[in-house]
Amino acid sequence: MYPLLYLVDGKDLLEDAESAKIDRRKWLVTSVGLLAVTLGHNFVDGVALASNFADMPALKGKDYGKSKMKYPDYAETSSGLQYKDLRAGNGMMPKKGDIVVVDWDGYTIGYYGRIFEARNKTKGGSFEGDDKSFYRFRLGSHEVIPAFEEAVAGMSLGGIRRIIVPPDLGYPENDYNKSGPKPTTFSGQRALDFVLKNQGLIDKTLLFDIELLNIIPNN
Fold it and tell me: What Pfam families does the record tag this protein with (predicted)?
């Protein structure tokens, strides 16, 4: 079919319609370009915003997650380990060579306070499971990271101690396979590994809660 032509005041409406199509195309191209620029700016702003949150404090109001921070409600040892007792134990204290049985929590302070191990349940990240076996190691044998061993050595049976672990008292070479305690779930391992292997973007300070459940004397 041929297009219908109408003359109004000497103007060709078909010609005007074609011209309008071209104008619409120009408008669309311009609009898409402006949208792309806007999205580009938003993307850059979003990346900047995300980078600000990447190492945000995990526990608000305390500035946890910032390297070399000192907290007034924690005691500090000569090694730089900071700790406080959530529950004081009332039993014996372990000695070098004793086997200690503990339950523990672990958090990646510099990564939104993400949990990588939980007391009483085998869960890490989004995974939840059944009751887990408690962790045991021989005190003084260097089976665990320095902060963990130092913390347990100063505890009494039945106590729960929270510790802030700077990178130099944590996992050697940023590898949880080289020293305990190791997360018991895949999701927990993945969360911890993400922080430990990150090259400088995320603070590697960690937080542990440790409960001393049993002491098996060295005979």
Answer: FKBP_C
Structure tokens at 156: 């009494």
Full domain range(s) for residue 43: 7-54
Chain centroid to CA 86? 23
Residue 60 lies in a domain: no
Q: Where are the alpha helices (DSSP H) in the chain?
A: 13-54, 146-153, 186-196
Indicate the helix (H) or strand (E) that contains 210.
strand 206-216
| Residue closest to 116 by CA, chosen among 176, 189, 58 | 189
pLDDT tens-digit readout, 46-86: 333 333 333 334 444 344 445 567 778 899 999 999 999 99
Note whether 101 and 46 are same-domain residues: no
Q: Is 69 among the domain residues?
A: no
One-letter amino acid of 42: N
Q: Which of 27-31, 36-40, 46-50, 156-160 has the highest mean pLDDT?
A: 156-160
> What are the respective helix, strand and coil percentages of the chain, to the nearest 5?
30, 25, 45
Question: 171 and 80 share a domain?
Answer: yes
